[in-house]
Amino acid sequence: MPNPPLILASTSPFRRQLLARLGLPFETANPAIDEAPLADETPEESAMRLSRAKALAVAPLFPEALIIGSDQVAFLDGQVFGKPGTHANAVRQLKSMRGRRVNFFTGLCLLDAASGRTHLRGVATLVTFRDLADREIESYLRKEQPYNCAGSAKSEGLGIALIARIDGEDPNALIGLPLIALCDLLRMEQVSVL
Length: 194
Prior knowledge:
Blueprint: E1 6-8, H1 13-20, E2 27-28, H2 43-58, E3 66-76, E4 79-81, H3 87-97, E5 101-112, E6 118-129, H4 134-144, E7 163-168, H5 171-175, H6 179-188
Parallel strand pairs: 1-2, 1-3
Antiparallel strand pairs: 3-4, 3-5, 5-6, 6-7
Helix pairs in contact: 3-4
């Protein structure tokens, strides 16, 4: 029996590249949801809620598909570090994270649109940043311009030079899509990856 269509509810090129590693055919769709956290919501709860909301947002367009939603929140001492958007915001983020250990928590949802069955996983990745000098932060930002990445650090690029240590169960989670957990969820839905 053929696998159901697989949809990635994301416009992120990073997530698209990660999912392509599995060699499964898939399409992408823009979930176009409000990603603002809710009042009194923990960063982990926000990532889990948003990963599910992204999958649900595109489900009406693909009623027979398995839909993947994912969201990542970077946080430290109760402060959330979203996508900086600007150079000045990225400088502020990296200065506040230097020499510190930051949790990059990734929520993952696999939704069977036909049945409504939903599987959720959360994957924490703890990133210890080097104690960077201001000039190193400026140099990195001029070269990488990571203004669309949570926490201003692209570990898959030059951002790896900012990092002293990464602790987590899946290196892909830091980039935005935990493939180990996704393979588990796909198996639960009888989708053969191998």
